């Protein structure tokens, strides 16, 4: 079994390499993101151990490019950062597991063996609703052949709505799932961003897929003409 470790802390990388070698793994070590991406692209590995904070190219960008190239090798992220949003971002980009430094070597080996057993089946990651598509790997949003530029908040809102398509979601649900838990502003911010999103994903294309359901929340559904959706549109 062959492992790629991309880690810029040389002492840690050597300690892990030796330990994994003693467990029967063949381990290649790279110390920056560019070299790590090159190795992962050119060679076949059972698991990639990928540090988040790397020189030349960070772990997020390495992972994003791997998945964009349809390289589905299981990736275990290693990082000194322990924020839940760092973990969420890693999983959104296609990471398979996440381990915070300092970590137990025995736990690392157990996680690696679990990923090896799981293997690397090709996974469908693109969310599709009518002509609207969202790719979490490349963070690209398209309406047909047109690419739509979104801010980070707009992207997060759209991703949540697409995962809940054809369901009415309330403002409070959106705040709980898209905004930071520490956010203490009013729920009118949701109306504002719903408006921003409509002007980007619907208005330029003559469709109305994101509508307000009065007194209940918002509904994202497959393509309909603006005229057909107008009767459901209220408010934001």
How would you characterize this protein structure?
The chain is α/β, with parallel strands linked by helices and 236 residues long. It folds into two domains: 2-118, Rossmann fold, CATH 3.40.50.2300; 127-232, Arc Repressor Mutant, subunit A, CATH 1.10.10. 40% of the residues lie in helices and 20% in strands. The chain has helices at residues 10-22, 33-42, 59-68, 84-93, 105-118, 152-163, 171-178, 188-201, 226-229; strands at residues 2-6, 26-30, 47-51, 75-79, 97-100, 127-129, 132-135, 140-143, 146-148, 168-169, 210-213, 217-220. Helix 2 runs parallel beside helix 3 (59-68) and helix 6 (152-163) crosses helix 8. It is elongated and about 65 Å long.
Kindly list the characteristics that best describe this protein.
Arc Repressor Mutant, subunit A; 20% strand; alpha/beta; disordered C terminus; 236 residues; 9 helices; 2 domains; Rossmann fold; elongated
Q: Could you name the CATH class of the largest domain?
A: Alpha Beta
Q: Give me the CATH fold name of the largest domain.
A: Rossmann fold
Question: What is the 3D shape?
Answer: elongated
Mean pLDDT score: 83
- Please give the radius of gyration in angstroms: 21 Å
| Helix/strand order, N-terminal first | EHEHEHEHEHEEEEHEHHEEH
CATH architecture of the largest domain: 3-Layer(aba) Sandwich
Strand content: 15-25%
Largest sheet properties: 5 strands, parallel
CATH superfamily of the largest domain: Response regulator
Please provide the count of β strands: 12
Unreliable stretches covering 5 or more consecutive residues: 226-236
């Amino acid at each position: 079994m062959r492992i790629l470790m991309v880690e810029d802390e040389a002492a840690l990388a050597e300690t892990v390499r030796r330990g994994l070698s003693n467990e029967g793994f063949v381990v290649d070590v790279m110390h920056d993101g560019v070299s790590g991406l090159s190795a992962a692209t050119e060679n076949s590995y059972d698991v990639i151990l990928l540090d988040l904070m790397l020189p030349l190219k960070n772990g997020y960008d390495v992972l994003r490019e791997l998945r964009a190239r349809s390289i589905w090798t299981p990736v275990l992220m290693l990082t000194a950062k322990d924020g839940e949003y760092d973990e969420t971002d890693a999983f959104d980009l296609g990471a398979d597991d996440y381990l915070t430094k300092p970590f137990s070597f025995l736990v690392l080996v157990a996680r690696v063996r679990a990923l090896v057993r799981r293997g690397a089946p090709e996974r469908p990651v693109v969310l599709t609703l009518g002509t609207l598509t969202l790719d979490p790997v490349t963070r690209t949003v398209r309406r047909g052949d047109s690419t739509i530029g979104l801010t980070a908040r707009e992207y997060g809102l759209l991703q949540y709505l697409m995962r809940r398509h054809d369901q009415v979601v309330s403002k409070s649900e959106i705040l709980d799932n898209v905004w930071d838990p520490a956010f203490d502003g009013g729920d009118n911010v949701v109306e504002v961003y719903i408006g921003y999103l409509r002007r980007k994903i619907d208005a330029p294309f003559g469709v109305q897929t994101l509508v307000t359901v009065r007194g209940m929340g918002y509904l994202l559904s497959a393509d309909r003409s603006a005229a057909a959706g107008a009767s459901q549109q209220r408010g934001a």
